[in-house]
Design brief:
The chain is α+β, with helices and mostly antiparallel strands. It folds into two domains: 284 residues, Jelly Rolls; 94 residues, Jelly Rolls (Sandwich), CATH 2.60.120.10. Helix content is 17%, strand content 28%. The chain has eleven helices and 27 strands. A nine-stranded antiparallel beta sheet has the order 5-4-1-25-22-27-20-19-18. A seven-stranded antiparallel beta sheet has the order 2-3-6-13-8-11-17. A hairpin with a 2-residue loop joins strand 23 and strand 24. Helix 1 packs across helix 2. It is globular and about 60 Å long.
Length: 400
C-alpha cells in the first residue's frame, strides 16, 4: 500500500476509535519445542506443518519473526477497523509517526515504537541461549534483545516451571570461560545446563534479562516485554528429546566471524560478570511495585522495570469500578481477563481480537477511563517503549 493510502486508512481507524487502535492477534510458529496449547486457540489450530506449531502471540508488534519458513508478515500486528479496514501497525507508524507517537517522541525516536510484547507458551523448557549485545547484534544489522518476563496465573504452569540463568559464579570469578566451549563443539547433549542456576517461576513475578545473559526459560505461560529484535545464539544442543540444528548457534554470526573463530565466537556474546553474579536473583528479580499516585478505584503496579528501554504495568479494576489513567505517550494494552471498556473501546480478556489495543499519543496523554463491567475484575497490562516512563523503579544493585 502506498504511504498516502496508508495514511488514509490510518485516519479512518483513528477517527473510529478516537485515537485508540484495535489489533488483530499475531500468531507466531516455532519448531524447536512443542506448544503449551494455552493461547486460547482451537486444538487443531496449533499445528502448522513445516512451520512447527503456534507457540507465541506477539502483541502490537512492528517486528517480523525471523523464522526459517513462514508468511512474510509473521509476527507483525494488523490494525483492524469497524468496516473491514486492515493495516499493518508497522506501516502505520512508518507512514505517519507523528499521528501514532506524537511529534516530540517521533522526532527523538525515529526507529519507531522500539519494543515488542509477546506471550510465549511452550510444553517444554526452552533451550539455553543468549541474545547478542548491541555491538554484536549491529554486525548483522539488528538490535540487541534485552527482555523481561512476567508469569501469568490462572493456567497450568507446565512440567518445568523454572528458568536456568547465567553460569555458576566460579566460572566468572576464575575467568574459566572455555568450560562451555566443548558443549558447543560436540553439540550432542544438554549437559551445558549443569553450569547454570535455576530459579522458580512464580505467578505474578518475573525477571529482567539483559542481552548477553544465558537463559533457558521454563514452561510457565509468560508475558514478555523486550527490545524489538529476534536475534539469538543457541547454546544447548539437546532439548525436548531432539538435537537442535547447530546452525542456530551461528544464526546471528557473520560468515567471516564463524570462519575465523568457529564455536568460540558466540562466547563473545556472554557478559561474564552479569552471568556469574552471585546476587543475580536479587538484582534481576521483578516483583510488582505499586504505582504511586494512581487512581484509587483500581490498582496499578509496575511489572516491567529496571531499564529505560521499555516499561510495563499491570492494571486491576474491580467489578463495577472505573479507573482513570493518564500516560506520557503511545503504548499498547493487552487485557488478560475480565471485560469492560478501555479508553472508550470495548474489551474482553481471553477473546483474541477484543483484548489488544494501541493508544496513540493523543489518546494516551488525555485522561482516559478503564471500566470493569463483567462479573470478574478486569486485569490488563500496558507496554511502553524506550524513555517513556522515567519514573519506573530500578533495582538497587547488590554486589558480593
Amino acid at each position: 500500500m502506498e504511504p498516502a493510502a496508508t495514511r488514509g486508512v490510518l485516519e479512518q481507524l483513528l477517527e473510529q476509535g478516537d485515537g485508540v487502535l484495535r489489533c488483530e492477534p499475531a500468531w507466531v510458529a516455532r519448531d524447536l519445542v512443542p506448544p503449551g496449547r494455552r493461547l486460547g486457540l482451537p486444538e487443531d489450530a496449533y499445528d502448522v506443518g513445516e512451520r512447527g506449531a503456534i507457540c507465541e502471540r506477539w502483541l502490537a508488534s512492528t517486528t517480523r519473526a525471523d523464522n526459517r519458513v513462514g508468511p512474510d508478515d509473521e509476527g507483525l500486528s494488523h490494525l483492524v477497523g469497524e468496516h473491514g479496514e486492515r493495516l499493518l501497525l508497522r506501516d502505520a507508524v512508518a507512514a505517519d509517526p507523528v499521528a501514532v507517537m506524537g511529534e516530540e517522541y517521533a522526532a527523538s525516536h525515529p526507529a519507531g515504537l522500539g519494543r515488542l510484547a509477546k506471550l510465549f507458551d511452550y510444553a517444554a523448557r526452552l533451550p539455553y541461549h543468549i541474545h547478542p549485545p548491541q555491538e554484536y547484534a549491529a554486525l548483522v544489522g539488528c538490535n540487541a534483545k534485552d527482555e523481561s518476563y512476567h508469569f501469568l496465573g490462572g493456567v497450568d504452569l507446565g512440567a518445568h516451571p523454572e528458568t536456568f540463568f547465567g553460569v555458576h559464579p566460579w566460572i566468572a570469578e576464575q575467568r574459566a570461560h572455555e568450560v562451555l566451549l566443548p558443549y558447543l563443539v560436540d553439540w550432542d547433549s544438554d549437559l551445558i545446563l549443569r553450569h547454570a542456576r535455576a530459579e522458580l517461576q512464580v505467578v505474578g513475578e518475573g525477571f529482567h534479562v539483559p542481552s548477553g545473559v544465558l537463559h533457558a526459560p521454563g514452561t510457565a505461560l509468560t508475558l514478555e516485554l523486550q527490545e524489538d529484535s529476534d536475534v539469538l545464539a543457541m547454546f544447548q544442543a539437546l532439548n525436548a528429546g531432539r538435537i537442535i540444528s547447530k546452525e542456530l548457534l551461528f544464526k546471528d554470526v557473520r560468515p567471516q566471524d564463524r570462519e575465523r573463530e568457529g564455536e568460540r565466537f558466540p562466547l563473545r556474546f556472554v557478559d561474564w560478570e552479569t552471568n556469574g553474579d552471585p546476587w543475580f536473583y536479587e538484582n534481576r528479580h521483578l516483583s510488582p511495585q505499586q504505582v504511586l499516585g494512581a487512581d484509587s478505584a483500581g490498582q496499578e503496579s509496575w511489572v516491567f522495570y529496571n531499564t529505560t528501554k521499555y516499561a510495563g504495568k499491570r492494571i486491576v479494576v474491580p467489578h463495577g469500578a472505573t479507573h482513570r489513567l493518564q500516560e506520557p505517550g503511545v503504548h499498547s494494552v493487552f487485557v488478560w481477563s475480565g471485560s469492560g471498556t478501555y479508553a472508550g473501546v470495548d474489551v474482553e480478556g481471553g477473546v483474541p481480537g477484543r483484548d489488544e489495543l494501541v493508544l496513540t499519543h493523543a489518546a494516551a496523554t488525555w485522561v482516559h477511563e478503564v471500566t470493569c463491567t463483567g462479573t470478574e475484575e478486569l486485569v490488563a497490562f500496558s507496554f511502553f517503549g524506550p524513555d517513556l516512563q522515567p519514573t519506573a523503579p530500578s533495582i538497587e544493585v547488590r554486589r558480593g
